C-alpha cells in the first residue's frame, strides 16, 4: 500500500532515506551523529550578554557590590589613614601582606571592586536601553479598543444622558484628558474616541505609563550615580593642613600635611590662594565644659583679588580655590625657644599639641636636631595643661579647656632623633630607638615644668627652654569633589522615580455610548467598565467620578462590582485588555491616529 505525503511535510518523525535511524530505531550504518549545533563565538557572546543584562544578574551584582564594600569599613584604608595601615601590617605581618596584595587596604581602587562596579554599570545600561525603546513605542501607541462585553470587569458603571452618543463621547474625552487641579496642563489619560457604527460610539482611556517611566528614571539615576561616583574618585582631591595663629597656608601640594587625589587629578591644577589664621575663638559651657562654638577668623587672598576677611565654623565651611575648607579640629601650639649647651638657638617656633580630652589636655613632641658642638640631639615629650592644677604632689592635670593657667610638663630625651635616615617620621611621635630618657641618679625620670614667659634649665646641661607664648592652631580639611552635585541630583531623581513607580496607578477605562432608541436624538445609554493592573481600591471611585462629571451623580441602583469571571466561558472573551493598538474583535482594526498622550 502506497501512502501519499505531499512534498515538504517530512519531519523528524517520518523516516526518509536521509534519516540517521532505520525502521527499528537503530542508527543507520555510516550515518552522522545527531547533536546540537555549535554556538560559536558570536553565540556565546550573545548568551553572555543576555545573562549579564538579566534582572537576576543585576540584583546579584548589586548585592555583591555591597558585600565587596564591607572590607573598606573593616580594614584601614591607605588613602585615608596610611599610618593605620602601617600599624596593621606591623601587627599582622603574615595576614597583612596577603591582604595588601589583594587590595584590602585600598578596596575602592582594587581590581575586583572595579570589575564588579563596571559589570553592574554594563548590566544596568543593557537592561535600560531595550526597556526604554519598548516604553517609547508604547507611549506612541493607542489605548486598547473597547471590549465587546463589559459585564465581567471588576469595576462597572452605567448611566444615561439626553445628549447624542457622539456629544457624550466628546465630553467624556475632555473629562478624561483634563489633568489634576494642581497640574491641569498635563493630561491624565490617553484617550481614543471610536465610531463603532449604527450610532454607537466608544471611548477608550488609559493611564499609568508614568509607573514605567518612574522605573526607568530610577534605573537611569542609578547609572548617573555610578558615573558621578566614578568621576569623583578620578577627579577629587583632599588634604589636611594645620595652621597656627598668625601664620598662613598656601594651596600647593607641599603646603598640605597630608594629601590624596584621584588618578586623573594633577596637583598642578590646584587653584592658587593663600589663607592666614588671624584669630580663633572657642566657647564652652561653664558648668559642663562642653564645647558650644568654634570660630576661626581668616584672611583669604586669591590671585587678582583683594584680601577678604572670612570666618570658618563647624559645619559652615569656607569655599576658596574650588575647594570646601572645613574646620576639622583645634588646639594649642606652645611657642618655645630651645638653646643648646653653647647658648645657640637650636629651635624656635610654635609646636601643635594634640588635645586628648574635653579639658584639652594636649600631648606633643618638641624635636631639637640643630644643636652645635657635637652635642646630643634633644627630644622633649609631654603635655600642655591649659588650666593646670596639682592633683596630688607631683601629679598635674587640667581643669578647664581655656588657657587660664597653662603649664608645660615635659620629659627629656637625648641621642639621635633619626631625622637624617631618610625615613619619614610622625611629627607627633618620638623615635626612641636611638634615644635615651634623661634620669636622675636614682633612675627617676627628670621632668621640666614651664609656664608662659619662663625659661627653665634642661637637665644634664643640654641647654635651656623658654615658653614664649601660647597661640591657637586649627586643623583644616580641604576637599574638592566635582561629583557632589551629580550625586545629589541623581539621588533625588532615584527617589522620585522609585516613588512614582510604586504609587502611580495603572488603569484602563472604557465607555460604550449607544442610542437609547431608534435614531440618534433619543438620548444615550452609557455602559462603562474599568480594569487595573493589580489590586487598586481607587479604580471604582475613579470610574464613578468620570461618570459623575460626564452624566451627573451616579445612579443609586448601580449593580455592585463583580469579580472577573474565571469560568471556562471567560477564555473565549477574556476581560484583560489587549496590547496597545490591538482589539478584542477579529473584524476590527485600528483606524484613527493616536490621540494626545497622557500620563
TrEMBL record:
Cellular localization per UniProt: Membrane
Superkingdom of this protein's organism: Bacteria
Membrane-topology descriptor: Multi-pass membrane protein
Keyword Transmembrane applies: yes
Basic and acidic residues biased stretches: 559-568
Residue spans crossing the bilayer: 57-75, 107-129, 216-237, 483-504
Keyword tRNA-binding: no
InterPro entries membership: Cyt_c_bgen_Ccs1/CcsB/ResB, ResB-like_domain
Example GO BP: cytochrome complex assembly
Annotated ranges, domain ResB-like: 55-544
Start and end residues of each stretch annotated as Disordered: 1-31, 550-599
Keywords associated with the record: Cytochrome c-type biogenesis, Membrane, Transmembrane, Transmembrane helix
GO cellular component, one term: membrane
Cited PANTHER family: CYTOCHROME C BIOGENESIS PROTEIN CCS1, CHLOROPLASTIC (PTHR31566:SF0)
Protein name: Cytochrome c biogenesis protein ResB
Native species: Cellulomonas shaoxiangyii
Amino acid at each position: 500500500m502506497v501512502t501519499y505525503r505531499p512534498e515538504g511535510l517530512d519531519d523528524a518523525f517520518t523516516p526518509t532515506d536521509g534519516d540517521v535511524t532505520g525502521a527499528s530505531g537503530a542508527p543507520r550504518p555510516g550515518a552522522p551523529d545527531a547533536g546540537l549545533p555549535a554556538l560559536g563565538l558570536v553565540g556565546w557572546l550573545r548568551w553572555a550578554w543576555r545573562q549579564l543584562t538579566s534582572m537576576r544578574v543585576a540584583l546579584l551584582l548589586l548585592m555583591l557590590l555591597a558585600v565587596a564594600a564591607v572590607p573598606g569599613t573593616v580594614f584601614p584604608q591607605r588613602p585615608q589613614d596610611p599610618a593605620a595601615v602601617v600599624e596593621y601590617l606591623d601587627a599582622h605581618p603574615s595576614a597583612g601582606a596577603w591582604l595588601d596584595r589583594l587590595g584590602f587596604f585600598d578596596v575602592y581602587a582594587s581590581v575586583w571592586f572595579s570589575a564588579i562596579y563596571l559589570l553592574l554599570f554594563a548590566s544596568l545600561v543593557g537592561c535600560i536601553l531595550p526597556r526604554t525603546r519598548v516604553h517609547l513605542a508604547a507611549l506612541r501607541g493607542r489605548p486598547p479598543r473597547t471590549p465587546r462585553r463589559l459585564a465581567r470587569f471588576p469595576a462597572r458603571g452605567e448611566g444615561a444622558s439626553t445628549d447624542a452618543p457622539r456629544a457624550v463621547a466628546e465630553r467624556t474625552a475632555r473629562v478624561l484628558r483634563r489633568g489634576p487641579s494642581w497640574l491641569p496642563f498635563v493630561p491624565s489619560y490617553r484617550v481614543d474616541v471610536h465610531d463603532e457604527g449604527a450610532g454607537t460610539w466608544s471611548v477608550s482611556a488609559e493611564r499609568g505609563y508614568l509607573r514605567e517611566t518612574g522605573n526607568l528614571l530610577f534605573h537611569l539615576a542609578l547609572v548617573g550615580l555610578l558615573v558621578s561616583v566614578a568621576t569623583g574618585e578620578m577627579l577629587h582631591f583632599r588634604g589636611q593642613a594645620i595652621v597656627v595663629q598668625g601664620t598662613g597656608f598656601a594651596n600647593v601640594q607641599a603646603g598640605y600635611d597630608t594629601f590624596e587625589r584621584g588618578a586623573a587629578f594633577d596637583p598642578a591644577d590646584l587653584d592658587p590662594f593663600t589663607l592666614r589664621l588671624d584669630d580663633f575663638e572657642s566657647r564652652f559651657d561653664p558648668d559642663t565644659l562642653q564645647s558650644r562654638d568654634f570660630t576661626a577668623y581668616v584672611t583669604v587672598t586669591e590671585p587678582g583679588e583683594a584680601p577678604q576677611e572670612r570666618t570658618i565654623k563647624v559645619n559652615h565651611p569656607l569655599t576658596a580655590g574650588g575647594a570646601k575648607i572645613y574646620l576639622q579640629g583645634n588646639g594649642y601650639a606652645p611657642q618655645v625657644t630651645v638653646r643648646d649647651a653653647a647658648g645657640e638657638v637650636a629651635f624656635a617656633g610654635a609646636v601643635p599639641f594634640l588635645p586628648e580630652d574635653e579639658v584639652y589636655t594636649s600631648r606633643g613632641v618638641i624635636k631639637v636636631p640643630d644643636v652645635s658642638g657635637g652635642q646630643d640631639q634633644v627630644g622633649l615629650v609631654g603635655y600642655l595643661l591649659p588650666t593646670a592644677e596639682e592633683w596630688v604632689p607631683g601629679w598635674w592635670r587640667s581643669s578647664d579647656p581655656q588657657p587660664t593657667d597653662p603649664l608645660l610638663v615635659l620629659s627629656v630625651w637625648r641621642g639621635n632623633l633619626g631625622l637624617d635616615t631618610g625615613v619619614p617620621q610622625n611629627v607627633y611621635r618620638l623615635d626612641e630607638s636611638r634615644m635615651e630618657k634623661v634620669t636622675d641618679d636614682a633612675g627617676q625620670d627628670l621632668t621640666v615644668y614651664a609656664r608662659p614667659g619662663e625659661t627653665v634649665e634642661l637637665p644634664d646641661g643640654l641647654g635651656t627652654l623658654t615658653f614664649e607664648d601660647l597661640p591657637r592652631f586649627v586643623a583644616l580639611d580641604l576637599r574638592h569633589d566635582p561629583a557632589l552635585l551629580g550625586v545629589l541630583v541623581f539621588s533625588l531623581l532615584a527617589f522620585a522615580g522609585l516613588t512614582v513607580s510604586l504609587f502611580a496607578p495603572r488603569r484602563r477605562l472604557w465607555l460604550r455610548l449607544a442610542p437609547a432608541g431608534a435614531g440618534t436624538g433619543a438620548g444615550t445609554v452609557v455602559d462603562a467598565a474599568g480594569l487595573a493592573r493589580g489590586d487598586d481600591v481607587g479604580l471604582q471611585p475613579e470610574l464613578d467620578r468620570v461618570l459623575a462629571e460626564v452624566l451627573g451623580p451616579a445612579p443609586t441602583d448601580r449593580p455592585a462590582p463583580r469579580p472577573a469571571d474565571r469560568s471556562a466561558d471567560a477564555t473565549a472573551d477574556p476581560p484583560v485588555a489587549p496590547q496597545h493598538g490591538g482589539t478584542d474583535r477579529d473584524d476590527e482594526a485600528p483606524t484613527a491616529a493616536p490621540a494626545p498622550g497622557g500620563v
